[in-house]
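Example record

One chain of 424 residues, shown exactly as stored in the release files.
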Amino acid sequence: MKKIGIYSGTFQPADRSHFEVYKKLKSLVGGNDAFVATTDREPIPEAPLNFGDKEQIWVRHGVPASHIIKVQSLPSDDIEKAQEWRPQEIYHKFSGKHTVAIIVLNPKEAELFSRRKGKTNSSSDGMSAGLRTDLKEIYEELSNPPSIPDKADEPEEDPDTSFEKKNKPHEEQHKDIWLDSKGDASYFQPYKSNENVLRPLEEHAYIVIMDDTKIQGHPVSTTNIRSVLGSNKYTDNQKKKFFRFVFGWFDVGLYQLMVYKFRNAHQVVYPDDEPSMPATTRQGLNTTQTRLPTQTPQPEPQSRVYNPNRKLQEMVYQVLKELMSEDYSTTINTPDSSTNMTDMSTSIEKEDPAKIASDQAKQRIDLVKQKKELEAKSKQNKQQRDQYATTVKNYDQFQKKTDRDGIDSVNKQLSQPTKPIQAM
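Predicted structure tokens for this chain:
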């Protein structure tokens, strides 16, 4: 049967330990049918990323966007109803009778399904599997007595292993099962010890337990990641180094996105006290945490980092700065402005009247030339609009005629009398 893998979680955010789990799941199902299942909900301080944010991170890890599925719920949403959880958004893509579903959960999530355990070591009639097998072997021996082979043809029996073969327990008859509240086998069963007797997803789904909370042997939770990237205790370089450590790559856009969202969430969760970077994480980074001054630095304004018009604002500011640095502005705003204005008017009166008249005539000629250019441009635009309108009208008439001809052709065929079918 076909196998599909499903890795569900909140992923706030998905670091490289999550991606390692995904790669193991993909290898386990032996194909490209390994999916990430996560939700899209209103952001809260403990989960500030929406589905689009999580999808971008998973795609940056290398997971195709088509394999990142938005689901309505997760097993951990409602502990009482965990047994009823079904990722139907993925299930409906496959046959329920010919597909095996393998779901990855971390140890904490797996406890929701493995609270009640049992062994398939007995049947409904109370007869153990070992006794049933022994009776079956005796019945077969009595029904079909074996021929007595020549001793010369018998292989020599190893005395060290003969006892183990004769007394080997019936391990193959035992497998772990998870029970529901009624004591029956639940829908979710452990993959381990059941890998040879897998049933289709319409009957069972199989849980693989994998730890996704360690990076290079160091415990790093998603809470740690949000705290470090959202805290004001660390410099931008420290955050970038930590980001590269937990994700295995660096992306400027995703870095700014997470810092922005985690900073806002961090200010809500830790208004006064801020948790420090885990010691084991600092060891993994192979760096020492520098102590910052006692005065908490002011956070950089969000607009300087995330305002999409920042470049334009800087250019406008530079132009204004140059305009404000002109000499005449300084002269006009001096305390003795009356004297300066008098000097300016005096300098204007001293200019040559012939030169002023010449400049005015030249300016008028330029305005007339500009007017003619605008009128020519307006005429050209009108001609272009008329041409477009004619083209659209012609195309509309052509399309109507084509549609009408098609309908007439079908009507003509429908109106023709049907020929009687001659008997063979």
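Notes: The first strand starts at residue 2 and ends at 8.
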